[in-house]
Specification:
Helix content is 0%, strand content 60%. Strand 3 and strand 4 form a beta hairpin. By secondary structure, the protein is mainly beta. The protein has one domain.
Length: 101
């Protein structure tokens, strides 16, 4: 069966905002907000979303143990307006110990 071509191209739009604030020379707090939205697929009988939009919120902080050793932790929450989730939980709490030389 022949599939007709789409009249309009599919589009995705994303936005990201983030900030970091030094509380003391050793401590900082950070936050991030991301959103990914999709256009609709317009058919001859039905208009349907191309994919479900997703929003991510993350807050965290860090501590400089030494000049070249830093501990970081954050909490992240993903919200998706429908559809299947592809792996992973909607929330996570990662931590890192970063060393550089």
């Amino acid at each position: 069966m022949h599939q007709p071509a789409l009249d309009l191209p599919l589009r995705a739009v994303s936005a990201s905002f983030e900030g970091r604030y030094k509380i003391t020379p050793a401590f900082y707090a950070a936050a991030r907000l991301d959103h990914l939205g999709f256009s609709d697929v317009v058919g001859t009988q039905v208009t349907a979303p191309w994919d479900a939009p997703v929003t991510r919120v993350e807050v965290g902080g860090g501590y400089s143990i030494l000049r070249n050793l830093q501990a970081k932790a954050s909490v992240q929450r993903d919200v998706r307006d429908g559809g299947r989730r592809c792996g992973g939980a909607p929330s996570s709490a990662p931590a890192q110990l970063v060393f550089w030389f």
